[in-house]
Amino acid sequence: MVINGVFFRTRASCAWRDLPPCYGRWKTIYNRHRRWSLDGTWEQILDGLRAGCDEAGGKDWTVSADSTIVRAHQHAAGARYAPAVDITQRGPVKITNG
Could you report the per-residue pLDDT of 17-32, keeping only the tens digit for each? Predict the structure, then answer.
């Protein structure tokens, strides 16, 4: 249940508190994910999954992320920002009656 909860959160890109209750308490899933990240459990799980892989190139496999789960802010599109014109560089303003 905990692993599925972590997978759901990664896939849905939601806050820990927004996990559906079918995975258990969100705080338990968060605490276990954090502990497993710090003590190397996730690396051991990945090594176990790679254990029977193709020996020729399988040992160098890494985890890849699909672009559907990589989130970017809307302003991270790479457009250049043109600064506003500095009004102090324009000179004096002429006021006319009329």
Answer: 999 999 999 999 999 9
